[in-house]
Design goal:
Structural class: alpha/beta
Number of helices: 10
Distance between the termini: 18 Å
Largest sheet: 3 strands, parallel
Number of domains: 1
CATH architecture: 3-Layer(aba) Sandwich
Radius of gyration: 16 Å
CATH superfamily: P-loop containing nucleotide triphosphate hydrolases
Helix content: 40-55%
Bound molecules: adenosine-5'-diphosphate
Order of helices and strands: EHEHHHHEHEHEEEHHEH
CATH topology: Rossmann fold
Length: 215
């Protein structure tokens, strides 16, 4: 599971880790955006809150995550969880859902706030698979995703106010989870500063070490 501020490169790195280890990438933000696009009741409820940068209710998120974690691909191969839990309540529920198993590792992908603000301002995201690009590193063919061919867009919640609110909520609601998981001996802090390949190398090293220790 990967924690980290908005714009820390969490989504991109989780997607790449999921390819590296051939396990499903479960990203609550991507699941919610898919629900918004499909116009489901969940999506209709989620849209206004997401656009303002507010968190969705814990119960609603954890119901969605619990359903996904029951699917056979997850049970067979494990998973990379991205964007959840974001509150202590979600972390407690996740613990109950996974029992008797538990998370193998929680990574805090660390990037200074000034840098995430710069990254968010130029971030562009694939609507279909969630891959991240930026104005300075666009896809090869104009705004068509290199990975899946989806449309690469400026997210509606990447406005200045919504970004501010998301970072505020991160500090108050999500950052305390770093200590929460450290107390459970599950936490590894990895610097998210540097070229994406370099950061991926650091992450793989930490995950390999945890896998060796648990095997
Ligand atoms: P970012 O990390 O850039 O904020 P995400 O794609 O993870 O983006 O999430 C986008 C939005 O989806 C959040 O601002 C929030 O409204 C909602 N969301 C995603 N995951 C959760 C969660 N675990 N709990 C509550 N709301 C969530």
């Amino acid at each position: 599971m990967v924690l980290g501020k908005q714009g820390a490169g969490k989504g991109t790195q989780c997607l790449r880790l999921s390819h590296h280890y051939v396990v499903p990438h479960i990203a609550t933000g991507d699941m919610l955006r898919a629900a918004v696009k499909a116009g489901t009741p969940l999506g209709q409820r989620a849209k206004a809150l997401m656009d303002r940068g507010e968190l969705l209710p814990d119960d609603l998120i954890m119901e969605m995550v619990a359903d996904r974690l029951e699917e056979p691909d997850v049970r067979a191969r494990g998973f990379i969880l991205d964007g959840c839990p974001r509150t202590t309540r979600q972390a407690e529920t996740l613990e109950e859902i996974l029992r008797p198993a538990h998370l193998d590792l929680v990574i805090d992908l660390d990037v200074p706030t000034a840098q995430v603000l710069r990254r968010l301002a130029s971030r562009r995201v694939c609507e279909d698979c969630g891959a991240n690009y930026s104005l300075s590193q666009p896809p090869t063919v104009k705004w068509i995703c290199d990975i899946c061919g989806g449309e690469v867009v400026h997210r509606e919640d990447d406005t200045e106010e919504a970004i501010q609110r998301r970072l505020e909520l991160y500090e108050h609601q999500t950052a305390p989870l770093v200590a929460w998981y450290r107390a459970r001996h599950l936490l590894a802090r990895v610097s998210g500063v540097g070229a994406p390949d370099v950061v991926l190398g650091r992450l793989v090293k930490v995950v390999d070490r945890a896998r060796q220790a648990s095997s």
